[in-house]
Write a structure and sequence with these properties.
The complex is a heterodimer of chains A (114) and B (112). By secondary structure, chain A is mainly β. In chain A, 0% of the residues lie in helices and 54% in strands. Chain A has strands spanning 5-7, 10-13, 19-24, 31-38, 42-50, 53-56, 65-71, 74-79, 88-95, 104-105, 109-113. Chain B contains no helices and twelve strands. Chain B has strands at residues 3-6, 11-14, 19-21, 23-26, 33-38, 44-50, 56-59, 62-65, 75-77, 86-94, 99-102, 106-111. Classes of the chains: A mainly beta (114), B mainly beta (112). The A-B interface holds A 4, 31, 33, 42-43, 45, 48, 50, 55-56, 91, 93, 95, 97-100, 102-108 and B 31-32, 34, 36, 41-46, 49, 51, 89, 93-100, 102, 104-105.
Chain lengths: 114, 112
């Protein structure tokens, strides 16, 4: 079975550019989560969706970050304009709609802003 | 609020040694508890879970028991291998919001 699919795996771009990260959750899962991982701050939840609706975006660092989920099989995380401090690994995860169910993670997008 | 505390790493062991990684939690209600493992360059993978008190989760030789009285979920393995070298995360689920609350992670290094 296909797991959570993220693209691109690696992204290197210059500061000020727009960056779009993509995620395809596991089919049938109705919760989707975006995380950021850095050495300094560890794993941080940025935003999560339930049934395509954003439920909690309190972890989004600032207005430069935005996320959408236009349908059950696709989500994007956009950074505009990007800054060097946004460099991190960004993970997408999905799960069934239950606190007993584990989240399944993608392999992440390693983002470097020069 | 809910929180998870893990022992600081790195933990360095020789192959075939016994492993314990401590995890304690603070939560309202009765959360589910999870251990995730992250190998270099990869995402987090579910290692095991327990959904109620006294449940024991197990997988690949790893075990953890949900201890409500001590609010703990310590990870153990009787004989580690070099291939177990990774970062291990303890987590609890917030049943009202489906969010996972993660510990800070513990890096394990197993030497031949």
């Amino acid at each position: 079975d296909a797991g959570v699919i993220q693209s691109p795996r690696h992204e290197v771009t210059e500061m000020g550019q727009e960056v779009t990260l993509r995620c395809k959750p596991i089919s049938g899962h109705n919760s989707l989560f975006w995380y950021r991982q850095t050495m300094m701050r560890g794993l941080e939840l940025l935003i999560y969706f339930n049934n395509n609706v954003p439920i909690d975006d309190s972890g989004m660092p600032e207005d430069r970050f935005s996320a959408k989920m236009p349908n059950a099989s696709f989500s994007t995380l956009k950074i505009q304009p990007s800054e060097p401090r946004d460099s991190a690994v960004y993970f997408c995860a999905s799960s069934f709609d239950s606190g007993d169910q584990p989240q399944h993670f993608g392999d992440g997008t390693r983002l470097s802003i020069l | 609020g809910n929180s998870v505390t893990q022992m600081e790493g790195p933990v360095t062991l020789s192959e075939e040694a016994f492993l314990t990684i401590n995890c304690t939690y603070t939560a309202t209600g009765y959360p589910s508890l999870f251990w995730y493992v992250q190998y270099p360059g990869e995402g987090l993978q579910l290692l095991l879970k327990a959904t109620k008190a006294d449940d024991k989760g197990s997988n690949k030789g790893f075990e953890a028991t949900y201890r409500k009285e001590t609010t703990s979920f310590h990870l153990e393995k009787g004989s580690v291998q070099v291939s177990d070298s990774a970062v291990y995360f303890c987590a609890l689920s917030d049943r009202s919001s489906y969010k996972l609350i993660f510990g800070s992670g513990t890096r394990l290094l197993v030497r031949p």
